Amino acid sequence: MNNDQRWLLQMRSLLHHNVPRFIKCISKRGGVNQAEWQWLQHGDDLSIEHPKGIMARGDEYLLYPKNEKIFKQGLFVLVKAIAIMSFIPGGVHIFGLHFCSEIDNFVLVEDGIKT
Length: 115
Fold this sequence. Notes:
This protein is mainly alpha-helical.
């Protein structure tokens, strides 16, 4: 297994185990709120942790992070964004996984590769 394959499996495992937890929390409180849709669509989170807007800076957080803290924040943002998108009709497909708020356990493995 090369480094790219190892990275893909690690990313899939991280998403497979964490996104459903976020979906469950969002479901329990009645679904995605307006602020979350706004954050997802416009990336206008101007918090201290992400002063330049999260969605517009995805490359900086995940592909070229300055340090481990920023990388971890980027992973959190990815998990949160996928969880929110799972409430869109049909859900979201990423890394061979299908996340949807309307399916059992909120995630399906599409390509048969174990996570």
